């Protein structure tokens, strides 16, 4: 039975499970040609602080990409207030049903970026450790790219929850995560670097005949065709696809970006953040 709820024990495999579920579906909400959409998807995990995902080796991101994300979406004053309020709820008053919230920072709109608005919209927190209301961090997003930026979005939830759960003296109790997505999007070629980093998953996708898999295979075939024709990466004028070709070349040579585990990420580079 197809469900619009993806549930994992920890945050480590949440992106993987959601992305492969999307790619494997025989029916999608919309086929854009460059990728496919699912609508009104909910991702959940029982322990969002426990996140061993490696955004370096899996998504080919460096520290600068993480720093750019937190500075783009987090207002330092609002984030500080949200985390402190969430701590009070988590350790003192959450059993009274209190909920706090934060709006993510709005980004300037242009034809090339954020044309239709923010991707991340808001966060809320509820619940108290050792009570009948489970501590829960909730994100609401307009859209995310599965198999790509979604890994960073989940990382952001893990890091925020880690600050909320700062002293960890409630051993064995966890912060749950719920992510409400208006649109889950798999972009046909922006997902390829993650698949190149995971050969077993790449093989599975290449064997599928679903709408999303067919789009991905088409763009992988383009990568192979350019290789056969001798078109160099330097000749690729479209930046996002040049990145895909670069990651394909690196993966063929068994090369990876340096490790960058979510568990090691912080908000230290968010100027003005004070918690």
Structure description:
The chain is of the alpha/beta class and 275 residues long. The protein has a domain of 187 residues. 37% of the residues lie in helices and 20% in strands. The protein contains 8 helices and 7 strands. Strands 1, 2, 3, 4, 5, 6 and 7 form a 7-stranded mixed β-sheet that branches. Strand 2 and strand 3 form a beta hairpin. The longest helix is centred in the last third of the chain and has 19 residues. The model has no long low-confidence stretch (mean pLDDT 94).
Question: What fraction, in percent, of the residue positions are helical?
Answer: 25-40%
Shape: globular
Radius of gyration: 19 Å
The count of strands amounts to 7
Determine the structural class based on helices, strands and strand pairing. Answer: alpha/beta
Contiguous low-pLDDT stretches (5 residues minimum) are: none
Please report which band the strand proportion falls in: under 5%, 5-15%, 15-25%, 25-35%, 35-45% or over 45%: 15-25%
N- to C-terminal separation? Answer: 44 Å
In round numbers, the mean pLDDT is 94
**Main β-sheet: number of strands, strand sense, barrel status?**
7 strands, mixed
List strands and helices in order, with pairings.
Layout: E1 5-10, H1 14-24, E2 30-31, E3 35-47, H2 63-73, H3 76-93, E4 99-103, E5 120-126, E6 136-145, H4 149-164, E7 176-187, H5 192-196, H6 199-206, H7 211-229, H8 239-252
Parallel strand pairs: 1-3, 6-7
Antiparallel strand pairs: 2-3, 3-7, 4-5, 5-6
Helix pairs in contact: 3-4
Task: Give a short overview.
By secondary structure, this protein is α/β, with parallel strands linked by helices. The protein is 37% helix and 20% strand. The chain is built from 8 helices and 7 strands.
């Amino acid at each position: 039975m197809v469900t619009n709820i993806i549930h994992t024990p920890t945050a480590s495999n949440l992106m993987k499970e959601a992305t492969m579920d999307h790619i494997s579906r025989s029916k999608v909400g919309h086929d854009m040609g460059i990728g496919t959409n699912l609508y009104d998807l909910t991702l959940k995990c029982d322990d969002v602080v426990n996140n061993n995902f490696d955004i370096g080796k899996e998504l080919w991101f460096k520290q600068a990409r993480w720093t750019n994300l937190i500075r783009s979406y987090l207002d330092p004053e609002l984030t500080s207030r949200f985390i402190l309020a969430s701590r009070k709820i988590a350790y003192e008053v959450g059993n009274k049903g209190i909920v706090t919230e934060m709006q993510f920072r709005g980004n300037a709109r242009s034809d090339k970026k954020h044309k239709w608005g923010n991707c991340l919209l808001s966060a809320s927190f509820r619940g108290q450790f050792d009570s009948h209301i489970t501590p829960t961090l909730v994100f609401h997003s307009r859209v995310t790219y599965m198999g790509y930026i979604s890994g960073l979005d989940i990382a952001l939830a893990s890091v925020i929850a880690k600050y909320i759960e700062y002293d960890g003296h409630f051993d064995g109790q966890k912060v749950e995560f719920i992510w409400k997505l208006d649109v889950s999007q798999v972009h046909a070629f922006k997902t390829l670097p993650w698949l190149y980093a995971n050969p077993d998953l790449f093989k599975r996708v290449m064997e599928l005949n679903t709408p999303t898999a067919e789009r991905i295979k088409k763009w992988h075939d383009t990568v192979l065709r350019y290789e056969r024709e001798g078109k160099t990466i330097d000749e690729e004028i479209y930046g996002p696809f040049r990145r895909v070709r670069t990651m394909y070349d690196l993966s063929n040579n068994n090369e990876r970006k340096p490790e960058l585990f979510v568990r090691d990420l912080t908000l230290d580079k968010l100027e003005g953040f004070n918690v």
